[in-house]
Specification:
Blueprint lengths: L2 H13 L2 H17 L3 H22 L8 H6 L6 E2 L10 E2 L3 H12 L1 H13 L5 H23 L7 H5 L4 H15 L1 H10 L9 H10 L11 H10 L8 H8 L4 H5 L5 H23 L5 H18 L7 H32 L15 H19 L7 H27 L6 H19 L1 H24 L1
Parallel strand pairs: 1-2
Helix pairs in contact: 1-3, 2-3, 5-6, 6-7, 7-9, 15-16, 15-17, 17-18, 17-19, 18-19, 18-20, 19-20, 19-21, 20-21
Length: 466
């Protein structure tokens, strides 16, 4: 999802009452547990948690004893993803934190955790500085405990690792320990980076490169996390590849991949795939509010990767980009193909004898179909890059011709409509005018609306005269 769409979502969620925010969080957490709508739930939960954390930091005292785990893991927040969402380098599953916390309290550092818990309970409510100092000590102890378990030496540790959790938790354990060990460097990077990177040209690339020049963040394990922080500041996240191209001094994918910063391309491709998953889910749910922003993000990302990076069709990166484009194309084409049929079902001029008494047109279906027509119109702007050029242009042209012709025919039919079916005919005309508004604009829709009013008025005058 683009930065603009995320900001709009965050503004909307921030306006909700705290009770509504809590209810939404519970519902989306349950959806994730059931494996439903993972892409949407992950995005909304992430924004809700940011809002709740900011509200709590602004309005409430620091976390107390029951939030000791939050003090420990607060340094990981920029890298956490929700359950069910695909994970990439530079990310940690939020679901891995509870078992890691339990292991620390049971095997990793139980005495220290008890000591910190008692110290936190004794602190006065306004001791923000002391709580922060305690959090840093807690994070250092946790990092040491994790390194003791995961580091070299000590013989076979498979049984001890198995006590932490399943393989995905163990995988995250290494990342958690690495991030906690360099938490101060990450804080420094956060301070050095611009708050927003709206454009990522040479001056911004130079500034970010300087900010990233922290030795402990340049390791193969930590660089993806550092780059993840940069990506979160970017209006167009795909542009992170420019950093890799600059470091490699070449757009050739082999030379880019040979540098440590080649991981930036992997991040860009994964995030582009995630946007595609959100788009598919939105289309499936009939939610077209953010489709335009997501289409633009996918179009710009796919075009940027193809034009700024010399990708080979048979390389891993080339195949992944081709797969993403094909996936998007298939999802869009399937939905685009369905639109003319929905329009015809509403506007088809049936014989009066075939219209049952009391027949009505569902206004919700009309608005859903209007949204789909607008969706087809939006797709035209990005059709060539997303490999849907032919189907989009053909469908849009067919819709224009059919709606224009049907609207005129329905207006004429309204003049002579029997009173038994007049209401249904009027609803058909109103639906046609709504579609005209999307396809041809307000002026044409107003013109057809006046024609419909004149037809209905003429029909009534004719009835009175007879």
């Amino acid at each position: 999802m683009s930065q603009t769409s995320i900001e709009r979502l965050r503004e909307y969620l921030a306006q909700l009452p705290p009770q509504a925010q809590a209810l939404l969080m519970r519902e989306f957490e349950r959806a994730l547990e059931r494996g439903q709508d993972t892409a949407v739930a992950t995005l909304v939960l992430e924004q809700l948690r940011k809002i709740v954390r900011k509200t709590e930091s602004d309005e409430t005292p620091p976390p107390r004893t029951d939030d000791l785990s939050r003090l420990l893991f607060q340094a990981l927040e920029p890298f956490l993803v929700e359950a069910g969402a695909p994970i990439r380098v530079g990310q940690i599953r939020r679901s891995s934190l509870p078992p890691i916390w339990q292991w620390l309290g049971r095997d990793g550092a139980p005495d220290k955790l008890n000591e910190f818990e008692a110290a936190l309970a004794r602190m006065p409510a306004d001791s923000t500085g002391q709580v922060e100092a305690l959090a840093q000590k807690l994070q250092a102890v946790a990092a040491d405990a994790i390194f003791t378990l995961t580091g070299p030496g000590g013989g076979d540790k498979s049984r001890a690792l198995a006590r932490v959790g399943p393989p995905n938790v163990i995988e995250d354990l290494y990342s958690v320990g690495a991030v906690l060990a360099v938490r101060e460097a990450i804080a420094t990077l956060n301070e050095k980076l611009p708050r927003f990177l709206r454009s990522f040209g040479d001056p911004q690339i130079a500034s970010v490169t300087t900010a990233l020049n922290i030795p402990v963040l340049q390791t193969p394990q930590m660089l993806p996390f550092a780059l993840s922080i940069v990506v979160q500041r970017m209006t167009a996240p795909w542009q992170i590849i420019r950093l890799a191209i600059k470091i490699a001094a070449s757009d050739d994918e082999i030379r880019v991949a040979a540098t440590p910063y080649g991981v930036a391309v992997t991040i860009a491709l994964h995030d582009l795939s995630s946007v595609a998953a959100i788009l598919r889910m939105d289309i499936k749910r009939g939610n077209f509010d953010t489709v335009a922003d997501n289409l633009k993000a996918l179009h710009d990302g796919a075009r940027g990767l193809r034009t700024e990076l010399d990708l080979r069709n048979d390389s891993a990166w080339g195949k992944q980009l081709t797969s993403i484009r094909a996936d998007i194309s298939n999802a869009l084409q399937s939905e685009i193909d369905s639109v003319p049929g929905r329009v015809r079902r509403i506007l088809r001029q049936r014989a009066e004898k075939d219209i049952p008494p009391g027949a009505r047109i569902d206004s919700t279906e009309v608005e859903e179909t209007a949204a789909l027509i607008d969706f087809v119109a939006t797709c035209r702007n990005y059709a060539s890059e997303l490999a849907i050029n032919e189907v989009t242009l053909r469908t849009y042209s067919d819709l224009q011709q059919y709606v224009e012709r049907s609207t005129e025919q329905l207006v004429q039919a309204l003049r002579s409509a029997d009173h038994k079916v007049r209401t249904y005919r009027q609803q058909q005309v109103q639906a046609a005018i709504r579609f005209c508004q999307v396809l041809f604009g307000d002026d044409y829709a107003s013109l057809m609306s006046r024609a419909a009013e004149n037809a209905a008025t003429g029909e009534r005058k004719s009835s009175r005269a007879s």
